[in-house]
Design brief:
The chain folds into two domains: about 1-40; about 45-85. Helices cover about 70% and strands about 0% of the residues. It has helices spanning about 10-40, 45-70, 75-85.
């Protein structure tokens, strides 16, 4: 009647495939995005870990300075005591 039952001719099937891809691709990507967020755990908050790392870095730096002879034994022990006193706070 209007050519509907004659099937797709020429490049009609390519056009239909592209249009279906434009419809389904965003839907699939959104679903995958939500699944990724649900399945893959997020990294923990780095705030406390950064404080621990900086504290270790300060202790390491004090040890290096003492090893180089830049700090006296008394000053080194004072620095270590001060840095270890900040662990609880």
């Amino acid at each position: 009647m209007w050519g509907w039952h004659e099937g797709m001719d020429g490049a009609d099937w390519i056009w239909m495939t592209l249009m279906m891809g434009l419809v389904w691709a965003p839907i699939v990507l959104i679903v995958l995005w939500f699944l990724r967020d649900a399945v893959i755990p997020r990294p923990p908050d780095r705030g406390r870990q950064d404080a621990v790392d900086s504290e270790l870095s300060a202790l390491d730096e004090a040890r290096r300075a003492y090893a180089r002879g830049d700090l006296s034994r008394e000053r080194y022990l004072q620095v270590v005591e001060d840095l270890e006193g900040t662990k609880g706070g």
